Amino acid sequence: MRVHKLYFVTFCVAVLAICGCNGKSQHSSSDQGSKVLAKVNGTPVTAADVAFRLQEAHGNMPQYGEKSLDDIINQELLYQQGLKLGLDQDPSYRKKLIKLESLPAGAKRLEMARRVFNTQIAAKIDVRYRDGKEYYDKNADRIATELHLAMIKFDKREEAEEALIRLRGGASFESIAQTVMGSTSVNGRKPWDLGFVQWDKIPIDFVESVYTLKPAEVSAILGSQGTGFQIVKLLESRKIPKVEYPDISATVMNRLRDLKLLEAYNNYVEQLRKDAKIVKF
């Protein structure tokens, strides 16, 4: 199954992608002539920064979109917060700088963002066995239900919005999916067909949306950091044998931790954005 297309967690892709940073925001000489897309407390975010982010996230260099720009803004905020916290003075960080000096500014920004994430967010998340049991009890029906999903992935939000309008107007999901993703089958399945997916293989930030769908319904636009925008259709669902909590406690606790991490990351960044001066051009 090609379920791996759904394997991502927002904050992990956003902040744990690379390593590096030095004492203040820098841009290489090749970046200095790039188009400035935004400023974060006076620090420019350029098209080259976004291209580097997309290249690391996708393995190619598509055009930047608003969400990718917001990703970089969030990373820059975390970077600046790391400097305020003095994380740039950590010996291991200073040592890593030597390896990153030749890389674009985005690599250094991501390393500091990773350190802020680990020390200020992830280190404060505690999930215990009983917490997992409570989560399991609340989600027992979902855990025992597999979803047959189809998904169209877009690089730009405006493309997803246009497609959603067409879908709401009666256009078929398959025709739009074929236009966007092509029709070449892999292992007998169309590229948009994800097959049956279990609850723990669905991104934690998608769970609520996809499990409230009825067969043949499509979701609103779903998005995750660094992965673009998705529209998901529920083709069918089916029950699977129930697994008792002690047998899957580790999986459940990891899922709950993912959820808490996502919520904590979003709250942390939201506060930074409130206190920052952000200008987009």
Low-confidence stretches: 1-33, 58-64
- Counting helices, strands and paired strands, the structural category is alpha+beta
How much is the radius of gyration in Å? 20 Å
Shape call: globular
Q: Please give the share of residues in helix.
A: 40-55%
Structural description of this entry:
- The chain has 281 residues and is of the alpha+beta class.
- The chain has two domains: 3-125 and 261-280, no CATH class; 130-239, Chitinase A, domain 3.
- The chain has eleven helices and seven strands.
- The chain has helices spanning 10-15, 47-58, 66-84, 91-100, 105-121, 129-138, 140-143, 157-168, 173-181, 207-211, 245-275, and strands at residues 36-40, 43-46, 145-154, 193-197, 222-224, 228-239, 278-280.
- Helix 2 packs across helix 3, helix 3 packs across helix 5 and helix 6 (129-138) crosses helix 11.
Short description:
The chain is α+β, with helices and mostly antiparallel strands and 281 residues long.
Defining traits:
single chain; 281 residues; alpha+beta; Chitinase A, domain 3; 2 domains; four-stranded antiparallel β-sheet; three-stranded antiparallel β-sheet; 11 helices; 7 strands; 15% strand; disordered N terminus
